[in-house]
Amino acid sequence: MAPKLMNAIQYFRYGGGPAALKRVKVAVPDPKADEVLLKVEAASLNAFDWKIQEGIPRPILPRKFPYIPGTDVAGEVVQAGSSVKKFQVGDKVLALFSHATGGALAEYAVAKENMAVARPPELSVPEGAGLPLAALTAHLALTHAGIKFDGSGDRKNILITAASGGVGHYAVQMAKLGNTHVTATCGARNLDFVKGLGADEVLDYKTSEGASLKSPSGKKYDYVIHCAMGIPWATFEPNLSATGKVIDLTPGLGAMMKFAMQKLTFSKKQLVPLILFPKIENFEYVVNLAKERKIKTVIDLKHPWSEAEDAWSRIMSGHATGKIIIEL
Ligand SMILES: NC(=O)c1ccc[n+]([C@@H]2O[C@H](COP(=O)([O-])OP(=O)(O)OC[C@H]3O[C@@H](n4cnc5c(N)ncnc54)[C@H](OP(=O)(O)O)[C@@H]3O)[C@@H](O)[C@H]2O)c1
């Protein structure tokens, strides 16, 4: 049985970073018919969490204040809504919440049955908590690039930018399950780390060679899984194959306009904005890849609940290596 009140972290306005995160006691949410109530064991942070606080997607998100941030959790089912069939009390699950509701930075949270997956015993709580948004995004981008994770299909040259980050480190591992040659960019301190994930070539983005994105072996990229920001089209363009595409995971207005213009002019090289609309079958798929040890969650740092603000500073810094975990 869940208590009536729980500890949670909320913010009440845009901006303010970690100092604006307030520790509060609020009512434990009531699961609807198609939801489960979870006792949260761990949450992971994503770059979009701090962007919502900064008001970058305003006025769409958050829908209202106060807002409990976070979308990714590992937890235990303590109550199941009346129509829930997949789970029962005591089940260990991984869940992805919508950005509209958030809710991860709390002792208890409600998850839709259709956005929760059983956590296999092979996956620890932090390993599981790292997966939802980042691994699903990597999976979606690579699927868009036509990568088949059983190694079949035509060979493709892939560039992955910010390969040391939450999305990027899963993207490198998943890309190498396919028939690919992977070039990756990261900072100098992570060159060996990203090679260890399976990348064939690694570029330090702070060197002039890295900034040019040129493959050391002269390959032209069929697809770029673009997890970094602020790289102009003019830098990508000469490095693409004749029909090369840049899948932009942080598309701004400029990217949307470039995409529209390239469509209108039937350009063969294209910038493709991509936003995750998660599907449960893909969630199950990536959890299974992790269960089978085909991909792993690399953890930047595990923060106790009492130091969640430090975790927030870390994700805001943009310098995480892998995933940032908050344990409850
Ligand atoms: N479209 C969608 O649906 C969707 C879903 C999820 C995430 N995203 C977006 O995808 C992006 C990546 O997310 P994330 O969670 O992976 O971020 P993250 O974990 O915060 O990425 C941090 C890593 O990126 C590296 N990095 C930063 N700038 C770089 C550059 N120019 N070149 C190479 N490496 C660089 C950093 O290395 P150093 O420390 O060495 O600088 C650090 O290791 C974010 O913008 C996020 O909002 C989009």
UniProtKB/TrEMBL annotation:
Superkingdom of source: Eukaryota
Gene Ontology molecular-function annotations: oxidoreductase activity
Residues in Enoyl reductase (ER) domain copies: 16-326
InterPro entries (alphabetical): ADH-like_N (IPR013154), Chloroplast_QOR (IPR052733), ER (IPR020843), GroES-like_sf (IPR011032), NAD(P)-bd_dom_sf (IPR036291)
Protein name (Swiss-Prot/TrEMBL): Enoyl reductase (ER) domain-containing protein
